[in-house]
Amino acid sequence: MYLPRNLISHLYQHLLRTHHPQSPPVLILVSLEPDALCACRILSALFKRDYIPHSIHPISGYNDLTSAGESLIQPMTTQKGGTGGVVVCLGVGGMVDVSTMLGLDNIADGGDPSGGVQVWLIDARRPWNLGNVFAGRPEDALQELDGNARSRGPDVVGGRIQPTFKPGQGGVIVYDDGDVEQDLATEQEAYLTLANMPDVEDDGEPLDDSDGGSEIAESYNGASQGKKRKTWSDGDDENNESEEENRRPRQRRRSNSSETVTSSPSRPPRRQIRDSASLDPSPSPSQIPGSSPPLAAQPASPQKLRRRLLRLRRKHESALHKYYSLGATYSEPISSLLYSLAEALGREDNDLLWHAIVGVSSLELYGRSMTGVGISSSHNSGGSAGWGGQRGERIRQILRDEVRRLNPPDPADTRGETARGEASGVIPTTARSPTDTAIRLSPEPRFLLIRHWSLYDSMLHSPYLAARLHIWSDVGRKRLHKLLAKMG
Predict the structure, then answer these.
(1) What's the Cα-to-Cα distance from 225 to each of 229, 273, 297, 323, rounded to whole Å?
(2) Fewer beta carbons under 10 A from the terminal one: N or C of the chain?
(3) What is the pLDDT of residues 213-231, one digit of tens each?
(4) CA-to-CA distance for 85 and 20, rounded, in angstroms?
(5) What are the residues whose beta carbons fall under 8 Å from the beta carbon of 269, sequence distance 6 or more?
(6) Which residues are 156's β-sheet partners?
(7) Mean pLDDT score, 376-393
(8) Rounded to two decimals, what is the model's pTM?
């Protein structure tokens, strides 16, 4: 299942309403990446303000994810004597089947395999594992395909959570940043159709249109008898003879154009027969010798239905294979997504905004976006969708607007140093006071820790310059020294 962007606070508000002192703590599994760590700081700050107990467990790979499922999550299930709970995956599990990795797909007593454990999956890596997005729970995969799902009814339609959805039933819920509803319509149709399709053994045989035509011809010829075939052949011979008779008068007219030679008298009756046949496009079977009822009226054979099913199955499987073959990419940073959650709850402040800015900047510094925060523009963003396109530029503009909204200009600043520094491109290096925690917009070069390291160390460890000057080699180091020498 997936939670659309307009319902981003739906699950959190339900957790806030249903939480009580006896509730199990929320388990947060966070990857060791700056974006995920910043998102974890935002989510933990929200939990602290609402007095929701939680625990944080770092995940460095799939082995740690499997170990966390065995030691931390499976004891929470009702099958193991637990009471269920909520597990939040930040930056992990988006590209794999989370239910399998965490061991929540084992049906022991025929009940709920998730054991009352609900997994919130928030990840910026793509492609999605479509089983997490459109299925959610193994036993609900088939029931959620229909518009009238029996177990969840109208709460989940095609994997999309509706406003009437009631959490607490377990399963995997993916937080959608807009990719699923905007870009995965074809993959959604293919996945749901394949999940609802019966199992058919595919031997890899060719399924072109010629197979269906030969099958129809064989069935038609098998229904006809030998005597009927003879009748048809006789009719063909008569037609050939009549055509030869029709050609003879024309040949004689060419040979002796001065003489008037009448045509064969048998032609007008044949013309009348042809005209009557053209007026009646659907002659009865009794008028045609050796005819049989139309094939459309006959039920399709099992072989034909099987070929149709295999053709449809291969079509949808190719669509899913094309989606998974696009390669690993990155979408909206999860720190920005969780800041949107805080904004929907009315809890935004400078600390949460700063964590969102650091998470977004980390993806840019690591080369997972195409432009920087301070120098990006819509015409060079590299596309119309995705993190490097118009959506990424829109997120950066929203963060700039949030900085201006939460950090208004100081009325005592009569000289307008803040606005003048932002417009002139000057990097401020001093704060207004020791207790100043305001955020101000300024151009930021692509140098790591420029405010904490020296300029040389920052440029030396910058991936942006390393890829262009080849700093890992001696020649690249000399280029950097020469560049600093020219700068003075």
Answers:
(1) 6, 27, 20, 52
(2) C
(3) 444 434 444 444 444 444 4
(4) 12
(5) none
(6) 161
(7) 50
(8) 0.72
